Amino acid sequence: MSTARVQKNTAPAPALLNPRTLSGRIELRTHSIVGLATAAVIGMRIDLPYGLRVGTVIAILLIPVWLPTFVRIRSAVVFSLIGVAAVVSGVVLTSIHSINHASTQSDTLSRSVMIIGLIASTGALVWAARAVGVGRMCLAFSVGMVLGIPFNLSDQENAWRFTYSIAIGALVLTIASLSGRLWVQLAALLALALVGAVNDSRSNSAMLLLAAVIIVWQRVSQSVIPGRRGIGSLLSLVVAAVAVFLLVQSAILEGYFGEATQARTQAQLDQSGSVLLGGRPEIAASTALISEYPFGMGSGTNANFLDILSAKMGMASIGYDPNNGYVERYLFGGAIEVHSMLGDFWIWFGLAGLALGLMSLVIVIRGFWVRMRDHALTAIYAYLTIRFLWDLAFSPAVSATRLLPLILALGLVPLLVRRTSETDDSHAASLTTVPWKERRG
User: Fold this and answer.
1) How many Å apart are CA 242 and CA 210, to the nearest integer?
2) 402-438 per-position pLDDT tens digit
3) What three-state secondary structure class fits 188?
4) How many C-beta atoms lie closer than 10 Å to residue 325's C-beta?
5) CA 369 to CA 384: how far, in whole Å?
């Protein structure tokens, strides 16, 4: 039986709507249309001034619609409160450090708006998933991402890596997951990994291959070890992740993915002894800054000369030459950017930002665990989880938050179902642990 068909999934009706009446059916249809449209617009990521996006504005306007659903999830409430605390903390820290640092008010505003938008967008997507089902919500979001490509064009030479890979990949994997067939999901993952590999998208290709390993492992273990599994399952997945990483690295170094990719990977190994450190020297810069400012620096604070010197020394300690203009132009050209979502949150919003990143991790891992436990992992969910873990450590917060509302919503939906089952038995019958795809017959 397909992993996507393990459990029955009907799109659950919002509370208090009676689908047996004409008004109830009309209102249900309206909820479905609004839910799909909202998910698509959030996925499009159309920018407005000061960090606002069209999807954020719509999600905020829909607060009266999605808030009653969202507050039923304890983790969602905790996440939201931490997010609000992070915004306040970022403003306060900026004010404190203004004594010996320059600051940029527009950065304070845009980064505060980013967090508020993250909360609102996640809440809207949780409600949309309840209104139309998780699979349809994911499909609408990924279609929106593809439609939003013209609004997010990059001037980088590698268009696939920087512009198309995530949007098209999410759409292809969502469609493959909705098919409910393991071979279709594997074919999609392997095809996308191959395209990424020949376009020097090494990290994303490795994520896709690991997602393929996970869903195959799930199918095999489902047959060999029926029922729910324990911590050994997660440990075996960690081993699989390390194996895939080493396999991809070895294939690159052997030249299977082109000479340019081979040369760049070898240079990173020679430079720092590690592909991760060589490819992400910003880790050393963020570690140096956080050690200097463990309570954070503020969402609008600019680095001073001593901060830049400290970051350069940290990068030099791993064999990276920081005197190439990159540190001054990108990392500290304006307000600080350390190319790590967790690092950015910590430096911008202090301990509340660190807590926000860790709470996101808890939500995503718990959602992954629930689906793995229930043999309900799909290609898109496995990939999004791996992508999140990478972004948390190695991607700028601004770009990492592109997919964050979606993966957070997917992690929160099972908790909504459990909470609903505890408090509303009459409605719980129409909800499922993983409302991904309707099973017919």
Assistant:
1) 9
2) 999 999 999 999 887 655 544 443 333 233 333 444 3
3) helix
4) 9
5) 13
